[in-house]
Amino acid sequence: MNKNQLILQLEQQGFSRHIIRAFEKVKREDFIPKNLKQYTYLNQPLPIEKDSTISQPTTIAFMLELLELDKLRRVASREPRFPRYSILEIGSGSGYVLELINHILPSSKIWGIEINKNLVKKSRKILKEDKNIKITKPENLSEDKFDRILASASYKETPTNLLNQLKEQGVLVCPVKDSIFQFKKQNNKVIKKEFPGFIFVPIQKE
């Protein structure tokens, strides 16, 4: 499968145009090991380090849809000065999803949390021109509340610490066991939706 075929598959599955445009612009091959370049645009996860993978494109697109970034884009387009939304990815790996988000919401402050030192080094090098993307450890975050949070690895149970880091009207998308959950914080309540049938590597801890 080549890039055009992948884009066609995303279109056929009905993903939003702003998400498809991000996949068109971002080169997935920049974020995977050289020995796997021939598999770049297959719709499957690929290993990038021990116990770390880059998720398959359709799964990433689905999670980005659940993040409801389009709502932030619509608000931003009405503002004379774009709001600087705060977005956090847990388990940012080689930085591919961070760059996709950056193309969707370029005015945002985007944080990536990654504990694999090799991946931190690689992703910082790849994304060095993107000044609004920061990859760090949890204790080095300069913000404690976020408009959107995405976890790219699976938790054993609902991570309440991430729910506590959501702003009002915020959205958390997070794999728990073999399901993807969407959590929305509205009027100090959390609305939860479950989407079963996914496989993720477990979240790694230091």
Describe this structure as you would to a colleague.
- The structure is a single chain.
- With 206 residues, the chain is an alpha/beta fold.
- The protein has one domain: Rossmann fold, CATH 3.40.50.
- The chain has helices spanning 3-12, 17-25, 57-67, 69-78, 96-104, 117-126, 160-164, and strands spanning 46-49, 52-54, 86-90, 109-113, 133-136, 146-151, 166-176, 179-186, 189-196.
- It has a seven-stranded mixed β-sheet with strand order 5-4-3-6-7-8-9.
- A hairpin with a 2-residue loop joins strand 1 (46-49) and strand 2 (52-54).
- The longest helix has 11 residues, at 57-67.
- It starts with a helix and ends in a 10-residue tail after the last strand.
- The mean pLDDT is 92.
List the helices and strands and how they pair.
Layout: H1 3-12, H2 17-25, E1 46-49, E2 52-54, H3 57-67, H4 69-78, E3 86-90, H5 96-104, E4 109-113, H6 117-126, E5 133-136, E6 146-151, H7 160-164, E7 166-176, E8 179-186, E9 189-196
Parallel strand pairs: 3-4, 3-6, 4-5, 6-7
Antiparallel strand pairs: 1-2, 7-8, 8-9
Helix pairs in contact: 1-2, 2-5
Summarize the structure.
The chain has 206 residues and is of the alpha/beta class. It is built from 7 helices and 9 strands.
Task: Write out key terms for the chains shown.
206 residues; 31% helix; Rossmann fold
